[in-house]
Amino acid sequence: MAPESLKRPMKFSTKTDVWSFAIMMYEVFNCGVKPWPDDPPKKIATAIRKCNMPSMPEGTPEELKELTAQIWVVDPAFRPTMAQLCSSLYAAMKKYRPPPPENYEGSLGQLSSRVSMMWDDTDLIPIYRRPSCHLQSPIKRQMQQLR
């Protein structure tokens, strides 16, 4: 829970959701282990109120460590918005894209043949753009012709 949620009266906002998202990021990079797994709830609440948050686990990209540091601040007014958080995550994601498949050219050829199968024989309108009542794959048409 965010620090403002631990006070009376409890306060919740989109900024508490941002805080919770950072907790979830911690758990993802910590193989599902929660912060302070063995501590009693009172001790955890005190740590959160004082903003004594755990360090992000080893192997966490630097950009995400910096992002959680921006999120884990006591005053919600200084936390990023969810939109800003998404922008930062998207920028980090672009940096860590997986390499293309080994047989990349072959994959493009397979995709091309699959796309060409989506075209109807009778007209030049792609099947996915026609009304749903006309959606039929070539396999469905063949099955109907066999009946």
TrEMBL record:
Domain of life: Eukaryota
UniProt name for this protein: Protein kinase domain-containing protein
Species assigned in the record: Angiostrongylus cantonensis
A GO MF label: transmembrane receptor protein tyrosine kinase activity
PANTHER family: PDGF- AND VEGF-RECEPTOR RELATED, ISOFORM J (PTHR24416:SF600), TYROSINE-PROTEIN KINASE RECEPTOR (PTHR24416)
Any Gene Ontology CC annotation: plasma membrane
SUPFAM superfamilies reported for this sequence: Protein kinase-like (PK-like)
Annotated Protein kinase domain residues: 1-93
Any single biological process term in GO: cell surface receptor protein tyrosine kinase signaling pathway
InterPro entries with a match to the protein in the record: Kinase-like_dom_sf (IPR011009), Prot_kinase_dom (IPR000719), RTK (IPR050122), Ser-Thr/Tyr_kinase_cat_dom (IPR001245)
A Pfam family it matches: PK_Tyr_Ser-Thr
